């Protein structure tokens, strides 16, 4: 699972993994108890009109979870800033996704609620609006309830709805960017589709990318990301290696991106390729974004790296199986989604995937030929526009 440390570097610290599991266990028991028994529900109040919220409002967004959710939240941040130009937007995130917000200049401050002393500091502040963007787990809703603010917005998917003054419906067949925009309806913000790109790469990250890509001598390249947070979402390093070899025969360069846990797979994928470069584990998160920004396109499974590429306006070929394509797959003519649509897929709900009795065939059965055809279709689309 890709995790980003305080300095923006990808890390694979076992302590983070254990902490994530502990948070899920605490949420299942303590979170439910707090929402049902220990905290009184917030009384609902009517939606606001534009005139009800000052342009200088202080707004806090709570975003636990992974990198992909954080990246797809950015259009909602930008919509808030567009509607309330002088508002201050803070984010309460986790250490594993906090650095995504370095790619959004509209965010003024990022704190991490899995740092105890930091959470206490946030609880002492006052905000005009708190928006909990978590989809299912309850602890973030409890945190939203405890932070001083009159207006509290969040998804009403379970007992967590008791914590909000405005509980918003959540649908599994709605693109996640649009779901996050739905949270702004109580503020009178219209759910306008975002323009790409909606992520901004810092200048120093661009310099890092130029240095790392120097060996390619400005040759166009295809980015490959072989990783995923769970095994069932991985296409397999053998398939990626076969794809890389096919691209090399077409005269196209290949760059593997990802965290340290993807480094070994990256070496395997580009082994023997004169124009193959493995940068997995060698960049910061922002540096990876800068590399993706320079790619012709990205091939990846359902992952945070995929959603960052979408936010940068990079064409993608995405491989789906367990995940809900209607909710997580990129939309639009610059993206191609390959989904075998097995009867048992999608099987993932609220980030949880059950053990697979057929070894993830829904994604493993995607062929290299199908990926090459999707890439060809993207290329034809670009040629048609030119």
TrEMBL record:
Gene Ontology biological process terms from the UniProt entry: lipopolysaccharide core region biosynthetic process
Molecular function terms from GO: ADP-heptose-lipopolysaccharide heptosyltransferase activity
One annotated Gene Ontology cellular component of this protein: cytosol
Listed CDD domains: GT9_LPS_heptosyltransferase
InterPro entries: Glyco_trans_9 (IPR002201), LPS_LOS_Heptosyltrfase (IPR051199)
Keywords: Glycosyltransferase, Transferase
SUPFAM superfamilies according to UniProt: UDP-Glycosyltransferase/glycogen phosphorylase (SSF53756)
Keyword Transferase: yes
Keyword Transcription: no
PANTHER family: ADP-HEPTOSE--LPS HEPTOSYLTRANSFERASE 2, TETRAACYLDISACCHARIDE 4'-KINASE-RELATED
Protein name: ADP-heptose--LPS heptosyltransferase
Species for this entry: Geothermobacter hydrogeniphilus
